[in-house]
Amino acid sequence: GLSYETALDSHHWRIITSAFSHISILHLVFNMSALWSLGIIEKLGDIGLGVEYYLHYSLLLVVLSALLVLGIYHVLIQKFKLDYFRRVTAVGYSCVVFGWMTILSANQPSSKLELFGFLSLPISFAPFESLIFTSIIVPQASFIGHLSGIIVGYSIAWGLIHGMNNYWAVSMLGWIVLVFVYSLKKSGTYDFSFLVIESVTDPSLPSVRF
What average pLDDT does the segment 87-100 reach? Predict the structure, then answer.
């Protein structure tokens, strides 16, 4: 999972892997059920959504929601001195699921979100209803993580974050792979023998201190 402490220890690769880890079967089933229902997004190309849009912004939601979680943890720890959040671990695809609920609620407010095959929620209220619902049925679930997904989702739906296309998606994916491999090496999680990280400081040059 992803926590403030692991991020400080250069485990930046967890930004990606934490999205695909889950704390329980119920947590996984909830996300898969919601994601299945949100598949309608792929069929809404006529209103600017569709398959490409879904793939592009899923990538963005994974990264931005995780970074926002770390940003909120930082404020809670540094500003409000709540050291408890140093070790709070965020796991699961919920950030992305909540982001897509929010985007769909803004673009197709008349839709319904089907959960577990029998629970039907109006999509316009689904993000916040699901926020409360998951906090009850999965107490260990990250409220901040889900809220971050909603915030990023609204940022995308309202056009504050826009412009993703194939070029930017591939470029972003390339940078993610580079940072992923670099952080695996730097954190000592995996030893890539062919990859050597050297200091940019040249000891033969005089240093200037301020």
Answer: 95
Catalytic residue among 94, 105, 155, 183: 94
SS3 at position 100: helix
Active site residue 94: yes
pLDDT, tens digit, 9 for 90 and up, residues 49-86? 999 999 999 999 999 999 999 999 999 999 999 999 99
**Does residue 41 lie within any of the structural domains?**
yes
The range of the structural domain enclosing residue 75 comes to 4-186
Nearest to 138 by CA among 6, 16, 24, 17: 24
For the chain, the farthest-separated pair of C-alpha atoms sits apart, in whole angstroms, at 70
Q: How far apart are CA 123 and CA 193, in angstroms?
A: 49
For residues 18 and 122, give the distance between their C-alpha atoms in angstroms, rounded to a whole number.
Answer: 29
Spot the catalytic one: 18, 146, 148, 183: 146
- Has residue 192 been placed in a domain? no
Structure tokens at 206: 């005089």
